[in-house]
Amino acid sequence: MTTSIPKTGLQLRSLVKESGELELSLVDTDVAAPGPEEVVVQVEATPINPSDLGLLVGAADLSTATQSGTADRPVITAKIPSAAMRGMKGRAGHSLPVGNEGSGTVVAAGSSDAAQALMGKKVTGLGGEMYAQYRTLHVSQVMQLPDSASFADGASCFVNPLTALSMPETMKMEGHKALIHTAAASNLGQMLNKICIADGVTLVNIVRKAEQEKILKDLGAKYILNSSSDTFMKDLIDVLAETKATIAFDAIGGGPLAGQLLVAMEAAATMGAEYSRYGSTQHKQVYIYGRLDMSPSTFPPGVGMSWGAGGYLLTYFLQKIGAEGRANLRKRVMDELIA
User: Fold this and answer.
1) Of 52, 119, 122, 301, which one is least surrounded by beta carbons within 10 A?
2) Long-range contacts, 80-87 (Cβ 8 Å, 24+)
3) 3 — pLDDT class (breaks 50, 70, 90)
């Protein structure tokens, strides 16, 4: 086992205080020596995903943020509205590490062949606590990066790519024929378009701005709808009648959009059918995987009686598909990174 690692390293911590304040700070933490199947990664790059922000800043009002501490050890403090503290109660008083994924160099490795094979290699890792100088991970939590990939390229190999890959897989597993995605011009949305185009999956994209429409058109997307358009609902129903899309992945979360998607799916499903007071028998599903809008989600009349709405988390999907399924998706991510 190689052990040329420092005893401690800096790590970013997020603390919710009982007083109703968020505190972000850098702290010295022990660098765990690797076990036989583990490696120590010197972290070089990490992204900030929406899922990171939930833990990093929680419900804090960042317009109240102030800085204290020193240049080497800054401390950021922000107030948390009293109403929002109810949701933060469970983590009050606990200093939590942050950062789902990142990339770096293996500087120490355990005794197993798998660990030793990664010694000195450039890797990408998923395991939490990645906003740190060093992170000890099991070999199953890392993938070796190609020499041509930069640390920035490799920092985001897990959350967005695997989430994008999971959406058409979920569509197929649940027996749907096409899917809908909101916030479709996002980084994840652009990945999803490339995947669906390559795999021949029908994708309906929902954006909010004209410039976002252009981004997707340039990628070759076929179905692009602007939720700000006066004809949005009519256009959406027409497209869903054509595509038969009955599953949606919603990154907005709050407000009327999730309900509008279900109403449009129901309208498309009943088009030309005999009237039933219970609506169509076609199951319609909206998965909320982001909360760009923190207001309540609203579901109006008109959705019928065969529908579902719920949360969607990559972790649960990866658990469902098993080790072989996870390995296949990870291989595809790496193959396309090399390409």
Assistant:
1) 301
2) 80/16, 80/20, 80/21, 80/22, 81/20, 82/20, 84/58, 84/59, 85/20, 85/59, 87/59
3) low
pLDDT value, residue 338: 65
- How long a stretch of residues is the chain? 339
| Closest by Cα among 47, 3, 24, 333 to 136 | 3
For the entire predicted model, the pTM comes to 0.85
42 pairs with which residues across the strands? Answer: 105, 134
Element holding 315 (H helix, E strand): helix 314-338
Take residue 201 and report the two structure tokens written for it: 């999956």
Q: Is the dihedral of CA 190, 193, 195, 198 positive or negative?
A: negative
- Chain centroid to CA 106: how far? 25
Helix (H, G, I), strand (E, B) or coil at 245: coil
